[in-house]
């Protein structure tokens, strides 16, 4: 996934590269259209002045070389071609002394050569090429001898201290711009990353997380609005939990009364009578509602941010065996085979809460397993503590599997079975409090595999 920071940097670098390319193109166009011709004209004027001066020496050929050397020292590269087609160079040597056909006409036809079309004439870099055809050429005569003078500015001398300073200045600007771009990207993306993290916390029902972003811009306004939203969600969540706790607590007393009177009615009613059947139904439903109220109370207490675990060291394998023995009559009733592979393992945990975990998972495995099938329970401590409970039951559909740990969620196939939809949600919260995790794997119609991971035994 591309982060916003990376996208910002990539986009900025792309625009920087495009700006450089566009700048080079525009500079090249400007040079070819205007500067190049001005430079050619200036060089041609200097070459003609030198040629006129040489012709005015009245046949003193011995003075040619000293004079041309002095001119070269002023910042020029000069090549002198005599009638015998021999070159004499002055100043910085040329990289290539090859002449084009047009340049050769300076000597043969006494024509002026401008070097306008030398090399890649449409690139300004060709202006800096130290080749003989990248010069201007003029013919002249001294002592009835024909010469051709080729001249260009010495690019090495043009790269003076001011050019070095200018280059350093431009490089400094580029470095500062790049550094500023990275810092700006960091400043822009950091609050967004904090918002993203806060959103995840809220999605996990953590309403105590607040943003510490103070900016006088749209991101600052967004952070303030987000904090206001979290505050309202926190108030609503606290009100909901308080309501559930109060209602669950207040339901216990009347439910116990209903259950007690139902037991009395059932005991006094004649065996097999309608009155006894009605009383048993009332008693059963009162038990179910009482169980729901207890689950709501437990879940509400687990939601408290400072829930205090009553941790102790005990034998986890013995606890799981005891939980299975508790359902022995149901196993025998459905003729279920239980395969146990329990390594001797000590755990540091809340015994009562963990007992709820095994009770819920084992009862679910029994509830949804067909008669005469098997249930497998494995406990290992090789890589942390791992408890696996597998069955060959009805399984869970792929659509329902991601939601089974949500509160009050019940898969369609479980509607025919009694339940509250809170059991797995409570299991999830208990295991999370112990810094563990619960994993579910299931194939619809084939069975379910539940794996509970707990930290290795460590008493604090």
From TrEMBL:
Cite the InterPro entries for this sequence: HAMP_dom (IPR003660), HATPase_C_sf (IPR036890), HATPase_dom (IPR003594), His_kinase_dom (IPR005467), HisK_dim/P_dom (IPR003661), HisK_dim/P_sf (IPR036097), HssS/ArlS-like (IPR050398), Sig_transdc_His_kin-like_C (IPR004358)
Q: Where is the HAMP domain?
A: 186-238
Keywords, A to Z, come to: ATP-binding, Cell membrane, Kinase, Membrane, Nucleotide-binding, Phosphoprotein, Transferase, Transmembrane, Transmembrane helix, Two-component regulatory system, Virulence
Its primary localisation, in coarse terms, equals membrane
PROSITE patterns (alphabetical) = HAMP (PS50885), HIS_KIN (PS50109)
> Gene3D superfamilies from the entry?
1.10.287.130, 6.10.340.10, Histidine kinase-like ATPase, C-terminal domain
Q: Which GO terms describe its cellular component?
A: plasma membrane
Superkingdom of the source?
Answer: Bacteria
Q: Where is the protein localized?
A: Cell membrane
Example of a GO MF term: ATP binding
Q: Give, as one word, the top-level EC class.
A: transferase
Membrane topology value: Multi-pass membrane protein
- Kindly state which reaction or reactions the protein catalyses: ATP + protein L-histidine = ADP + protein N-phospho-L-histidine
Q: What is its EC number?
A: 2.7.13.3
Q: Which Pfam families does its entry note? A: HAMP, HATPase_c, HisKA
Residue ranges crossing the lipid bilayer per the database entry: 12-31, 162-185
Report the protein's function.
Member of the two-component regulatory system HssS/HssR involved in intracellular heme homeostasis and tempering of staphylococcal virulence. HssS functions as a heme sensor histidine kinase which is autophosphorylated at a histidine residue and transfers its phosphate group to an aspartate residue of HssR. HssR/HssS activates the expression of hrtAB, an efflux pump, in response to extracellular heme, hemin, hemoglobin or blood.
Q: What is this protein called?
A: Heme sensor protein HssS
């Amino acid at each position: 996934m591309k982060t916003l920071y990376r996208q910002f940097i990539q986009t900025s670098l792309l625009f920087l590269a495009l700006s450089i390319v566009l700048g080079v193109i525009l500079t090249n166009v400007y040079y070819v259209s205007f500067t190049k011709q001005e430079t050619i004209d200036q060089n041609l004027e200097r070459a003609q002045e030198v040629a006129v001066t040489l012709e005015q020496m009245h046949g003193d050929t011995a003075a040619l070389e000293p004079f041309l050397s002095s001119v070269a020292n002023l910042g020029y590269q000069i090549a002198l071609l005599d009638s015998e087609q021999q070159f004499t160079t002055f100043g910085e040597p040329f990289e290539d002394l090859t002449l084009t056909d047009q340049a050769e006409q300076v000597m043969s036809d006494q024509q002026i050569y401008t070097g306008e079309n030398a090399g890649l004439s449409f690139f300004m870099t060709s202006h800096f090429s130290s080749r003989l055809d990248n010069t201007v050429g003029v013919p002249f005569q001294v002592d009835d001898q024909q010469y051709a003078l080729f001249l260009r500015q010495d690019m090495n001398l043009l790269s003076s201290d001011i050019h070095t300073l200018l280059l350093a200045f431009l490089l400094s600007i580029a470095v500062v711009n790049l550094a500023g771009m990275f810092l700006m990207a960091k400043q822009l993306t950091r609050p967004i990353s904090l918002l993203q993290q806060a959103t995840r916390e809220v999605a996990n029902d953590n309403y105590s997380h607040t943003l510490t972003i103070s900016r006088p811009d749209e991101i600052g306004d967004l952070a303030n609005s987000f904090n206001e939203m979290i505050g309202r969600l926190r108030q609503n969540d606290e009100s909901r939990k308080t309501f559930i706790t109060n209602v669950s607590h207040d339901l216990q007393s009347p439910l116990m009364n209903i259950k007690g009177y139902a037991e009395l009615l059932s005991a006094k009613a004649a065996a097999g009578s309608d009155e006894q059947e009605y009383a048993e139904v009332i008693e059963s439903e009162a038990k179910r509602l009482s169980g729901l109220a207890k689950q709501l109370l437990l879940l509400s207490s687990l939601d408290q941010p400072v829930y205090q675990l009553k941790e102790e060291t005990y034998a986890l394998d013995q606890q799981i065996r005891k939980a299975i023995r508790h359902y022995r009559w149901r196993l025998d009733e459905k003729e279920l085979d239980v395969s146990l592979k329990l390594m001797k393992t000590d755990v540091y945990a809340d015994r009562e809460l963990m007992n709820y975990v095994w009770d819920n998972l084992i009862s679910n495995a029994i509830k949804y397993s067909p008669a005469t099938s098997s249930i497998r329970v494995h406990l290992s401590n090789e890589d942390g503590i791992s408890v696996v409970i597998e069955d060959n039951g009805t399984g869970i559909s792929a659509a329902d599997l991601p939601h089974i740990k949500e509160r009050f969620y019940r898969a369609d196939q479980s509607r025919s079975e009694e339940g509250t939809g809170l059991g797995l949600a409570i299991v999830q919260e208990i295991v999370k409090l112990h810094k563990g995790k619960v994993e579910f794997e299931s194939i619809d119609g084939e069975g379910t595999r539940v794996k509970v991971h707990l930290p290795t035994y460590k008493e604090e």
